[in-house]
Design brief:
CATH superfamily of the largest domain: Peptide methionine sulfoxide reductase
CATH class of the largest domain: Mainly Beta
Distance between the termini: 83 Å
CATH topology of the largest domain: Metal Binding Protein, Guanine Nucleotide Exchange Factor, Chain A
CATH architecture of the largest domain: Beta Complex
Number of domains: 2
Strand order of the largest sheet: 3-4-8-7-6-5
Shape: elongated
Number of helices: 4
Largest sheet: 6 strands, antiparallel
Structural class: alpha+beta
Order of helices and strands: HHHEEEEEEEEEH
Number of strands: 9
Strand content: 15-25%
């Protein structure tokens, strides 16, 4: 500095330092955002039984409106106009909240109701059945034990090998094709399909 004035060289140096500082700050923000996005993607596409159930605040931002309406708002879906009612692919249906594997494609059948229908869950221990007297009907509601997601209803069915039918909402599930199960953390369930 000469006489309290900043020279053009000093201005140039200051501009370079400020520009470099801003570039570094933006790079750090970009990296943090990338890792947060990858963490969110991993939490929503892979299964980890030890991962905590997300709060309703997190779920409200993560789930589609229809999914939220079904699993937390006790809403329903239009028969024959939902994602999985006629899905014939081989794989598992997992809880939209936790990724918990609940139903397998080999237990799915056409229940003629326009919603996914199964003879049984992968494990009865993962479900909770509660009375449902809404809409002036007496039914048994099925919920995921861990996430408390509302899945649908279970009915008696003399034609079913288990004498029951689980009529569930597509919006309560994600579908994982058998060829993706290993990569998405469902290794333990691949053997279910070896027997079929």
């Amino acid at each position: 500095m000469h006489g309290g004035r900043i020279t053009s060289e000093e201005k140039s140096a200051i501009s370079t330092y400020v520009g470099a500082g801003i570039a570094v700050l933006l790079a750090v923000i970009g990296i943090v955002f990338f890792f947060l996005t990858q963490k969110e993607k991993k939490e929503t596409t892979t299964f980890d039984r030890n991962r905590p159930v997300p709060s309703d605040t997190v779920l409200k931002g993560r789930l589609k409106a229809e999914e939220w309406n079904v699993v937390r708002g006790n809403g329903s879906q239009t028969p024959f106009q939902n994602e999985f009612w006629n899905n014939e692919k081989v794989g598992i249906y997992v809880d939209v909240i936790t990724g918990e594997p609940l139903f397998a494609s080999f237990d799915k059948f056409d229940g003629k109701v326009g919603l996914p229908t199964f003879t049984k869950p992968i494990s009865y221990d993962l479900l909770v059945e509660v009375p449902d007297n809404t809409n002036e009907m007496q039914r048994i509601q099925v919920r995921d034990k861990r996430s408390n997601a509302r899945l649908g209803h279970v009915f008696g069915d003399p034609q079913s090998p288990t004498k029951r039918r689980y009529v569930v909402y597509s919006a309560a599930f994600h579908f994982v094709p058998v060829e993706q199960m290993k990569d998405r953390g469902y290794d333990a369930y691949v053997s279910l399909f070896d027997k079929k």
